[in-house]
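USER:
Working in pairs, take the chain set out below, taking as long as you need, and write a paragraph about the fold.
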Amino acid sequence: MSYSVAVRALCEFTAKVGDLDLRFTPSPSAQEGIAGHRTVAARRSAHYQSEVALEGEYQQLKVRGRADGYDPDNNRLEEVKTYRGDLDAQPANHRQLHWAQAKVYGWLMCQKLGLTQIDLALVYFDIVGEGETLLNQRFQAADLEAFFNQQCARFLEWAHQEMQHREARNHAAQTLGFPHAEFRPGQRILAESVYKAVSTGRCLMAQAPTGIGKTVGTIFPLLKALAPQQLDKVFFLTAKTPGRKLALDAAKLLHASSDLPLRVLELVARDKACEHLDKACHGDSCPLAKGFYDRLPAAREAASSVRLLDQRNLREVALAHHVCPYYLSQEMARWADLVVADYNYYFDFGAMLFGLAQLNQWRAAVLVDEAHNLVERARSMYSASLSQFSLQALRDSAPEPLKKPLQRLNREWNALHKEQVAPYQAYATRPDKLLQALSLCISAMGDYFNDHPESLAGELQAFYFEALQFAKVAELFNEHFIFDISKHSLGGKRSRSTLCLRNVVPAEFIRPRLTAARSSVLFSATLSPRHYYADLLGLPADTAWVDVESPFKAEQLRVRIVDEISTRFVHRQASLEPIVDLIASQFAQQPGNYLAFFSSFDYLQQVAQLLALRHPAIALWLQARGMAEAERQAFLDQFTQHSQGIGFAVLGGAFGEGIDLPGSRLIGAFIATLGLPQLNPVNEQMKLRMGAIFGAGYDYTYLYPGIQKVVQAAGRVIRSEHDRGVVMLIDDRFGQPQVRQLLPRWWAFV
């Protein structure tokens, strides 16, 4: 059995030493990096070879990669690194890593061409001034071979361990039995569909009802496919914390049911993993960054023997070895089999998991949990905004070198206001003059931070990163985006504004991520209508589809449409009393725990206040704005097997999906809204754009997202084949045929 490793991954494993140092350096963007490499290549002779594919072997180890360039006229192999700012500020351990890469490529080239010696050059290209700093050394092939063998030997012990682990993992996975005595109804169909999708290398959309065990039903078949499909990784991606918890619980179940040596890793956000939030990420500030790479091998070895690296277990390993938990988790992402993480880790601009998968050419299978959430999350990933209030604050306090660029940006910003009469306006084109001023501002700020790294904090830092995101999104701007300006009047002729670049259709960014995997499975209880999600997420034409029949019987859930009440804004006041009477009547008829969902906190408060006044004996639990995780849990903890009360929540919020209150913990739901997004100028622009692209503006903007939230909320009531409950859909529009047909087929209406 052989083990394959990329040159960069090999060198990062063997040649990284010293401190973790994440002090800000104004590094080039990916596009700037590519352009820099092209510029360097264009300056070379006609015989110059770019992106030279190289590979070699050491015992069972296969090493592969692409050298940046080879100049046959000078027998020189070049490793090109783009930068901006002061090259002298580059940490010594970075330079050491670059030389290690160059020397490995150098040996592979000597071997390929039968050379006895070769010149190796580190070419540092300044993307601002476009100057080159060339560090050249001549090496004998024999010395490079010795260096290559040394790096490989250092890595090989680990590689042997990894090969043994993979072999044991694959063997155990092949014999893995389902962790329950039998599949739940519908669960087997889901599992078979997932296995078939990964076997044929296709994407799959799976609509499966709440409560059938989708998490185990999707992870299990991919583990069975590890060996036959030669999968390296499985990524389980979630939108919210409860989804991560369900995946980790499924992993524990699989571990408990068999002797499966599966490494499972949970990735959490940096601010949740950081031990020293008051310190910067470098050795002069944080003790866990000091000598990080010197202590990493031992920490990595220890972590690799822990099957479940959830946040708690990984933290224990990290602190035992005096390394940063967050960056240890990033390292272990390379060696875990099942990675549980937020969507951002795979779909965002700088998504770590996607980047690692591409760099290391992993065969990965991707599971997208609660995939209906991916539309809005993806839109936010590929959108950006800038506030003129933030700019104004900076102009008053900015260091002298930044005052002029900021003032110019403000002038171009004000110029945008001249033609805009209304408070809100959308534009078909991006603001090119402002973007030019923004680019100069970003360059000036980058140069300043390079010279004054201590200034990278507070409002200046926040604005800089917002500006970078805005410029990045602006480069991608096309008909799938809206540029809009929201003006805020300050009295008289003065005004300030917020600029937004809003992504409307994220398909072009999501599709390459989905298709790069061996198979991507998007699953949810609400993926209807199919074409809506396929269009917005860019699913390929050959994507498979499965709509799993509900295991629940119609008699388990009484669904009543209360169409004599309108919850439209204009009828809100008139609806309060009938809704209170309805809730009180149902509670009196069948006491127990209920959730009541509303379109806004204001609406929720009005109904709750009237219910408390009219029926003070009924216990009420209210969702509040901005509840922290502990507060959300405390809210749910009130729903016990023996309690009786009404929980008030906002539809589409924290309690509208992803929560599990089985049995008598929840026996019914009142849904007093159609769930339609708010009618405002932004959504109206979205509607126009959706209409132009798909010919269904209202449906794509309002109806489909609204009904999805309704079905998700209703899905909280029936969690198992033993549950019984009632759902009341309160609005006259629920009776309309085009709305009824979007509701689950198994529902029976009374």
In short: The longest strand covers residues 61-71. The chain has a mean pLDDT of 93. Residues 180-256+340-382+506-550 form a domain with the Rossmann fold fold (CATH 3.40.50.300).
